[in-house]
Design a protein that fits this description.
By secondary structure, the protein is of the alpha/beta class. Helix content is 39%, strand content 17%. The strands form two sheets. The chain has a six-stranded mixed beta sheet with strand order 2-5-4-3-6-7, sandwiched between helices. A two-stranded parallel sheet has the order 1-8. Helix 1 runs parallel beside helix 3 and helix 6 crosses helix 7. The chain is globular, with a radius of gyration of 20 Å.
Length: 228
């Protein structure tokens, strides 16, 4: 039986899906001298998943720098706390490497934030969003892509947490690791589906989304009228 995937994936469909958990090893890198050995190990792997985190700002006047680089293999994940390590020569070597594919999502934005810390020439990076359209998928957020292809829900509750805190909580570590690790899973599943053709794309109409947008517009209009 072929896998059913959808061009669009409604957010409320995810409510009943089981939550993704991560039971693999997580290494938190906080000292500059730790980065060399970690990068040597990572560049010996066949593929890597990547992501970054930045402390959220709730004021237009205050913007924070990228503070975390997550790099996952199939079996573990390294969290480079850039606000402690800085952009060491080893980390630059990782980012400029052209021998190992590094898979991310909306990775163009991550590269821009990393370049604000230190200029570098990006190596071999693959952005999943650039390829998912090849099989007809239009909803391209990590959460919706994973739900669509694997019927599991990635929690986003830690997204707006403080990524510059002294010690990352276990929940923050899990969140960061899953986001990088999931990129590998998505990319390899995409390659499998393209190679085997083992999927059916169900194209959904836009009526539900349009109706929701109209409902929100009506609610805002009503609130404005009530305020006079």
């Amino acid at each position: 039986m072929k896998k059913i995937i959808y061009n669009r994936f409604a957010k409320d469909w995810m409510a009943e899906l089981p939550k993704v958990t991560y039971d693999k090893k997580i290494f938190v890198i906080v000292a500059p001298e730790q980065t060399e050995k970690a990068v040597d190990y990572l560049l010996s792997m066949p593929i890597l998943g990547v992501d970054t985190e930045t402390r959220p700002s709730f004021s237009k006047k205050q913007q924070f720098k990228c503070s975390l680089l997550q790099v996952a293999t199939h079996h573990n994940c390294f969290l480079f706390r850039l606000n402690y390590t800085g952009m060491t020569p080893a980390i630059i070597r990782l980012l400029e490497d052209t021998s190992v594919p590094k898979v991310g999502l909306s990775w163009h934005d991550d590269i821009a934030s990393l370049k604000r810390l230190c200029p570098f020439e990006p190596g071999w990076f693959i952005d999943i969003q650039d390829h998912m359209r090849e099989i007809g998928i239009e909803d391209l957020s990590l959460q919706k892509l994973y739900a669509n292809l694997f019927n599991e829900r990635i929690s986003k509750t830690e997204r707006l947490s403080n990524w510059e805190r002294d010690v990352l909580t276990p929940k923050q570590q899990q969140y960061a690791a899953i986001d990088a690790w999931a990129c590998i899973q998505l990319y390899e599943e995409l390659l499998r589906l393209e190679e085997t053709g083992d999927y059916e794309l169900h194209a959904l109409e836009m009526e539900l989304e349009i109706e929701e947008d109209f409902r929100i517009y009506e609610e805002l209009a009503t609130q404005k009228e009530q305020r006079g």
